[in-house]
Amino acid sequence: MSDTSPAIELRGISKAFGPVQANKDISIRVMPGTIHGIIGENGAGKSTLMSILYGFYKADAGEVFINGRKTEIPDSQAAISAGIGMVFQHFKLVETFTVLENVILGAEEGRLLRPSLARARKVLAELAVEYELNVDPDARIDQIGVGMQQRVEILKALYRQADILILDEPTGVLTPPEADHLFRILDNLRAEGKTIILITHKLREIMDITDTVSVMRRGEMTATVKTAETTPEELAELMVGRKVLLRVDKAPATPGKMVLEVKNLRVRDDQRVERVKGVDLNLRAGEILGIAGVAGNGQSELLEVLGGMRPATGTVTLNGTTLKLEGRGSDGQSRRAAGIAHVPEDRQREGLIMEFHAWENVAFGYHHDPAFCRGPLMVNAALVRDTEAKMEKFDVRPPDPALAAKNFSGGNQQKIVVAREIERNPDLLLVGQPTRGVDIGAIEFIHKQIVALRDQGAAVLLVSVELDEILALSDRIAVMFDGRLMGERLPDQTDERELGLLMAGVSGAAA
Amino acid sequence: MDKMPKWADVVLIPLISLILAAALSALVILGIGEDPVAAVKMMVSGALGSTYGWGYTLYYATNFMFTGLAVAVAFHARLFNIGGEGQAMLGGLGVALMCLYVPWPHWSLALIGATTLAALFGAAWAMIPAWLQAKRGSHIVITTIMFNFIASAVLNYVLVNLMRPKGSMDPATARFPEAAHLPTLHDLLAPLGISFSKAAPANVSLLVAVAACILVWLLIWRTRLGYEIRAYGHSETGALYAGISPVKITMITMLISGGLAGMMAINNVMGEAERLVLNATEGAGFIGIAVALMGRSHPFGVFLAAILFGFLYQGGAELALWTSIPRELIVVIQALVILFTGALDNMVRMPLEKLFLSLRRART
Prior knowledge:
The structure holds two protein chains of two kinds.
Chain A: E1 8-17, E2 20-30, E3 35-40, H1 46-53, E4 61-66, E5 69-70, H2 76-81, E6 84-87, H3 99-104, H4 113-131, H5 146-159, E7 164-168, H6 176-191, E8 195-200, H7 203-209, E9 212-217, E10 220-226, H8 232-240, E11 258-268, E12 274-284, E13 288-292, H9 299-306, E14 313-318, E15 321-322, H10 332-338, E16 340-343, H11 347-351, H12 358-362, E17 373-374, E18 377-378, H13 380-393, H14 410-422, E19 428-432, H15 440-455, E20 459-463, H16 467-473, E21 476-481, E22 484-489, H17 496-503
Parallel strand pairs in A: 3-8, 3-9, 6-7, 7-8, 13-20, 13-21, 16-19, 19-20
Antiparallel strand pairs in A: 1-2, 1-4, 4-5, 9-10, 11-12, 11-14, 14-15, 17-18, 21-22
Helix pairs in contact in A: 14-15
Chain B: H1 6-31, H2 36-48, H3 51-76, H4 84-101, H5 107-136, H6 140-163, H7 185-189, H8 205-222, H9 224-234, H10 236-241, H11 246-263, H12 265-273, H13 284-294, H14 299-322, H15 327-343, H16 345-363
């Protein structure tokens, strides 16, 4: 070991939320001028640990040392003065302010804005040169892209003289080229002696950029290793606690009759902005069509229209029958009756009622099914039995039908939704982000179920922002950008680079 | 994991809130130089010490059950119906029309007719704000409040200009005919050999209110409609996903809510006054909000909370009658109960949750 003290050292940090032990006796040393990755499944306690470091939560036990000195961090102000900057997964920017105004927000000096703004403009210009962090200081936040917005967050931290930068899942909203740019910035920051903590659940990012990596599982730090001395497989095993399949085993598709035909579909969002701008697609029985794209390019709206949650114009035919697209967007019942099942993108806001029991959620959307009803009444006993059967088949833990949905982990919540929809044996399954916030073990399981449904002859429309998932599951891949489909690729004839360019709207990328 | 056992949520928190409100009220009574212990004794004996007192307590409680249920049903769809007052006024109009202009052969038929029209009138009055909310996005809190004032003005006009008997100086309808008079608890209990005060206004509507509590429970927790209402209340996007129409649920829920509030009129108008007077509701529509809050929007909780508020009303009236504690102070005491049980819920809840968590951790 060198004689320099670590930039950050945590000793024996523990934190419990009620009966849940989010962090258990965690110790970690991050040397200055390095990038330290923290990897773990959702709910492993990564964000809790960082929130303690940033003063959002108070640890039940343990100590924090910054540059070798014991430091109390009761609030974020203390974290900032200790030189810690945080870039959150969801940006904390004022959308109607300019970049400059956002940078000085909370760090204004004096009563008048003008001197602070002038100073910030100078500092920003210097930072831009030093770290490739170019942003137009006078652009308004709502007029720049997410990649830019993230740079503003980094600039905010640097402007407050942060030496330690924490980034929480920074690439979740970025296209691959934007992510590459971010990593170049991080490289520059490291070269200038800044210390960076990168929280992620993507193994590839860890392998690409970090110097050391710590793995968290169920609130505990299971290992800290030098990145150069490990492999993705080893890290995955450390995360999950057992060997995992990183690939999906599936036979080639045998497409059957045409199930879904979409012609010139146009959709407006709640603000009347056109989000889907003329989409055509075909989907046959027994195949999975994956739609890749950066979040916010119209994929969500496409799914919502097909699921009956949003009105649209154009024509959609299912098994030769034309679906009703106009109306107020509450056609979920007729869509289900027509043979469409829908695993929505956001299980907590759409797919489940978090306060409902598991058995109530198993009826959700199918509460008019005669099997569950007697006249206007619902037959709760029948539902509980049905839920028990589904929980066993889909290995939902704990297998307690009376537990409220909010008390299951993300993976088990998703299994409840997937069980409900797949067990309907639909002709068409709509799947949005099936494994977002789901642990690796459950991802494997859910992927298998989707492939099994395909093999039974269902058509599957998969929307995901995870390229790995799209590549692993799809029989055909379409990329969506700015409300349009950018052409189709076959998974074995394309790669992440080509898809990444398509996702960024570069259409000449055809190989 | 839930933070507390269910009994603590349902029983302990309201109880502690009540004790806090009572303690603060005692301090206020001390402050004006009266004896709080004597005041409590007087309230208890005045409200619960005789069948006369019980008769009034239950009479008020009947009002509050209807309006409390009205608010509770709407709460389940996350709609805040503050218009119970106006809906109950319109319900009164429905009762008066039925009782005055239909020659009823028997009170039981009159009760069915009056209940139906009261519910229809109340529902109709709730329908306009509901429609404005569902279709136009006008906030239902604002519109239902405004509709209370409109209802009051409508009743004023109807009573003064249309329904006032010729020559009467009183803005009220004529007395309802004998056949439309509801039996009081005295009449109902006498055949069973139980003597009950003849003067107290509690009447057969109490049974209707209890039946309404049971039916609302069935509706919310056993029917598909109740399932849809609760789902919509928890998550609007979730409801959309499940194919539950927000417009439909908003309309139906508010119609049920308004109907329940309107039904209150069979108690105060038909059962007690036996004619329709100005301001017959006397704020019961607003007390319904406190009752629903305290009863956690559960029909059984509403039932208990309604009796508690009935007790406060009747006990308070006794206090004002027999001591120098002014009428206004009674309102202060009632307000404290509402404040603690409704608005300051978290003040009691948070420390209690912490306590239960540390207890649980100590055990494991």
